[in-house]
Amino acid sequence: MKEGILLTGGTGFLGTELAARLAKAEEAFVYVLVRAADHAEAAQRLRAAWQHDQSLYQTVGRQLLPLPGDFMKADLGLNAEALQALRESVTLVIHAGAEIGFDKGKAELDQTNVLGTRNMIALAQSLPRLRRFLHISTAYVAGRKHGHVDYLINNAPPLMKGIGECTYEDFVQAQLVGVAAPYYLTRLFVPRFVQGAAVVNISSSRDRMSQPQTESYTAAKGGIAALTHAMAVSLAGKVRVNSISPGWINTTGSDIAGADAFQQPVGRVGKPEDIAEMALFLCSEKAGFITGENICVDGGMTRLMIYHGDHGWELHGDGEEEWGIE
In this structure, are 112 and 35 located in the same domain? Predict the structure, then answer.
């Protein structure tokens, strides 16, 4: 009989990464707890969260089993049949669900992060086959067991809406996620940073160029780029702070060829590994003399001058249409 794993937080950034790795474990199947009314809604929420990763998307209902429930409730809000299935199979619980709302008060956050964790521990204690319980959060990942932080990567994506539909509330929310959250998380970690620690903020090439109707996202990415050099000066002598501005990064796993690739000076679109390698470099001692910098990793696209009739570029129509490359 295959062993079961229970995962919470599967729709979040860290939970998605954990789910992708767990999906490769052929000797086990994974229950993914999702706040939903029924199985169909739980599956729909997982697919919506994982639509950028087709290989993960396709595991829903196969290796990764949607489990409608809520860790804010006793017994996760599960019925007797679902609880019995967990008790018969689960040997590992990974609790990665958390609320990180920088616009919310401590009391509200405690409802999820404290009460929710207590419910998960209580559930775990009722599982006769359980061998291990792991509680993982983004903050824990950044630090070691003895309580210090070596590296912090701020990579939460803000909302992208334009001036045509972006409300005041939408715009403020984008800045909270894209600028205020990295600022506040860095501030909270200041006492925990080791000497020589590194912070890497993920900005975007949109901090210097734009497409129409992207104001909320562009403003946030410009803000994090500016925040980078401010924090680098404030934390000088203890923490290096840099930012990366990715260009077109293909996160779908599909093959992008033709004009979309050839328009890039390097002849291809970017890969997630391109950004990961830069982040690793900026965290390493090899980048020990670099701080306060924004490094654009975009295949040279922002350095490409575009003129009609130059290097295959043509303007079609009367100027109201987009540029294209033949």
Answer: yes
